[in-house]
Amino acid sequence: MTIQTIIDQTFDAQKKAFLSGKTADVSTRLTLLERFKRVILEHKQEIYQALDSDLGKTPDIIDMAEIGAVTEEIDVMLENLATWTVDEVFPLTGAFEGSEGRIRAEPYGVVYIIGPFNYPFNLTLTPLIGAIAAGNTAILKPSESTPATSAVIKKVVEKTFDADIVTVIEGGRTENEILLAKPFDFFFFTGSPNVGKIVMKAAADQLAPVVLELGGKCPVVVFEDADSDLLVERLAFTKFLNSGQTCVAPDYLLVPTSIKSSVIEKLINTLRRDYEGKNIGKVVSERQIEKLAGYLEKTRGRVLLGGDYQENSRQFSATVVSDVEWDDALMQDEIFGPILPIITYDDLATVRKNIIEHHEKPLALYVFSRNEQAALDFISTIQSGDAQINDALTHAMCPQLPFGGIGPSGMGKYHGKTSFDIYSHKRSIRTVKA
Predict the structure, then answer these.
(1) Which of 20, 149, 178, 254 could serve as 50's disulfide partner, Cβ 3.0–4.6 Å?
(2) 300 and 243 belong to one structural domain
(3) pLDDT tens digits, the chain, 434 residues: what are they?
(4) Shared domain check, 167 and 91
(5) How many domains is the chain built from?
């Protein structure tokens, strides 16, 4: 049987199941989510092994950023879904006084979810949870760059769901092109802006809604009054987690000239103590290793730490580069690796101008300052998907906070209640009493 035939039959089966009302009942959705969590936890060891093989992730990181992120999202749905699915009913006023309004959350239909390689378990399955909670069926395509994790995702899904509710299609460009040509009711993509444009065109052909979770160079702006110990602690963890392969990782650091020396000294000391010579995970491919090495060959900045790599084992050391300018090779594209460029500044207004000019609308903006209002004021002058004060990256793991980009960093948000909402068509119903 050809892959075209498999995809055609899978899509048709899911459409039929959806139209039959198989996923309509809220108790059915809750049962599926409960079973999903149980199956995931039963396969923890296999998930550990897969993510270690693909990306060199350790169990503590997997528990936090992969398995834990998924199960916490399920818990939020289990706790709240019965409330979220109740119709909102209210009396209408004005010219419509005497009649009743009703807003009902209804599923869209068959959803196509395309997962990325960097957090392949989390970022493939967390979008699925919202789709199931809202009553949709779904076809998933995990990243072909993380084959071991793709295989375990397929196994966990098949042990949880009937194929006409959720199916995993493994593969690469060929499979994706066939899938994108199907008349899905909703598209969800996490990955690069270039592929995001292709997905958006496919969604446009179907006049279907789309969520794009992309990326961008996320700046860290340090104010003169920042707690430098806190800055270094959070920066070291969030920049080098998963070898820097996180879409909301700090991409570059902006430090006032007045505190540059002390911040760099503390950062280098911390990295030498905790990261130098240690495995911080695997870069996804030898090709990406070569790309990162190319940045270091071209940069005019000064490499203060790291720069070492091993292509065969896909290891790249935690690297810090100072004296970087805005037109440097390191400042052209999202780095997506364990290299931290440092730019010094004297004027916040110039910082704002350069961020907007060079990296408009990043996925996240980070500000470190003891003055919360000053930080909020600065954040309000720069558009970004999301922002944090005195931390980085972690907002993307919080089910209570909608997560997503804007413009080149993406469109649409998800997590928690927002996930249920994006996958639900809010249908208005007016009743005139007979």
Answers:
(1) 149
(2) yes
(3) 899 999 999 999 999 999 999 999 999 999 999 999 999 999 999 999 999 999 999 999 999 999 999 999 999 999 999 999 999 999 999 999 999 999 999 999 999 999 999 999 999 999 999 999 999 999 999 999 999 999 999 999 999 999 999 999 999 999 999 999 999 999 999 999 999 999 999 999 999 999 999 988 999 999 999 999 999 999 999 999 999 999 999 999 999 999 999 999 999 999 999 987 778 999 999 999 999 999 999 999 999 999 999 999 999 999 999 999 999 999 999 999 999 999 999 999 999 999 999 999 999 999 999 999 999 999 999 999 999 999 999 999 999 999 999 999 999 999 999 999 999 999 999 999 88
(4) yes
(5) 2
302 shares a domain with 409: no
- Identify whether residues 367 and 419 lie together within a single domain: no
Q: Does one domain contain both 325 and 223?
A: yes
Same-domain pairing of 247 and 302:
yes
- The residues annotated as belonging to the active site are 213, 247
Indicate if 143 and 23 belong to the same structural domain: yes
The residue segments making up the domain with residue 39 are: 3-214+405-432
Length of the chain in terms of residues written: 434
Q: What is the CATH number of the domain that holds 426?
A: 3.40.605.10
